[in-house]
Structure to design on (341 residues):
């Protein structure tokens, strides 16, 4: 029956081994984290009322949260407003009940997969692409951290060169016998500062682009992946529920439950397949965008660093013009030290 339910060749139902692994797929981050993910999306309730007495409570246990008063025990007949309040509270109770049932089924499915007593639906190609994305994101985060460290070091170097240039210039005015020597050392530090500011502008642009790629583009795709993984768990939970009902007796009572389970399963299957398609599309566009962005940024980084350490001021400035980078001198909005000279 499983083959008929899954329907598409891109996915397959893989038995979970005793060690919790599904075929050659990598381990998940941990059972505790997965359980938190199952529980994180609670029912969508506003703060109009709460239900006292839990799932087994009656409609009379509904208490408006907008007031601190206890329920009245007077024999005043219920008015139209009370009926509306009870209707809203009843809808909320149904929402909480459905959420509780869904959470129970998903938790049961997750534990069943983890302890080797169940099966899960796996799109091998998509799963490998997702794992590759997560690994790529970790590596790019490392590059981002190193890039930020480099900008901090460059900024510190610029401050030191700036101060040293000022000191040499001052001594050049006050030491006639060493005026020339202090003078050309001051000019050298000023030139190094100018080139350093240009390099810092290029590196800042590089770091900013990597940050956008990692924290916005990749993260957006991974958010859709999380939704897909949650939908996959729900899909398998209701698939398992449907399979168990199908193996039971076919009397009038179970026939109604089976039809209801089939409809619920179909809804979760549609949600799962839609999100699977969304993930595949986002992964494709992410890869294309990553190549385009990194081609530009790596060329910028290489040209700027090479020109700086070669002392080629003209090539360094041309690199910034090529990538349309406008320099912002470190510090406040006032003119930089170079502009004041």
């Amino acid at each position: 029956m499983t083959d008929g339910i899954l329907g598409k060749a891109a996915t397959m139902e893989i038995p979970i081994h005793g060690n919790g692994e599904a075929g050659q797929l990598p381990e998940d981050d941990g059972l505790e984290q997965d359980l938190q993910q199952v529980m994180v999306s609670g029912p969508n309730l506003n703060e109009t009322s709460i239900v006292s007495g839990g799932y087994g409570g009656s409609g009379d246990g509904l208490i408006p949260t907008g007031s601190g008063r206890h329920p009245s025990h007077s024999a005043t007949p219920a008015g139209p407003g009370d009926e509306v309040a009870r209707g809203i509270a009843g809808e909320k109770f149904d929402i909480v009940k459905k959420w509780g049932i869904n959470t129970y089924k998903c938790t049961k499915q997750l534990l069943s997969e983890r302890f080797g007593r169940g099966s899960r639906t796996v799109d091998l190609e998509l799963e490998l692409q997702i794992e590759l994305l997560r690994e790529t994101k970790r590596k790019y985060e490392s590059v981002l951290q190193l890039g930020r460290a480099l900008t901090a070091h460059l900024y510190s170097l610029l401050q030191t060169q700036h101060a040293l240039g000022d000191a040499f210039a001052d001594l050049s005015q006050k030491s006639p016998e060493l005026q020339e020597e202090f003078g050309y050392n001051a000019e050298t530090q000023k030139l190094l500062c100018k080139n350093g500011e240009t390099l810092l502008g290029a590196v800042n642009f590089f770091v900013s682009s990597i940050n956008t790629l990692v924290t916005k583009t990749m993260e957006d795709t991974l958010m859709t992946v999380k939704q897909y993984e949650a939908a996959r768990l729900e899909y398998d939970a209701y698939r398992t529920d449907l399979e168990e009902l199908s193996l039971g007796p076919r009397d009038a009572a179970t026939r109604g439950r089976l039809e209801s389970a089939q409809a619920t399963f179909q809804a979760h299957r549609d949600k799962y397949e839609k999100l699977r398609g969304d993930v595949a599309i986002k992964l494709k566009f992410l890869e294309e965008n990553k190549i385009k962005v990194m081609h530009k940024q790596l060329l910028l980084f290489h040209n700027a660093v090479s020109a700086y350490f070669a002392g080629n001021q003209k090539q360094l400035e041309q690199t910034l013009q090529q990538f349309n980078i406008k320099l912002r001198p470190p510090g406040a909005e006032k003119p930089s030290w170079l502009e004041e000279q």
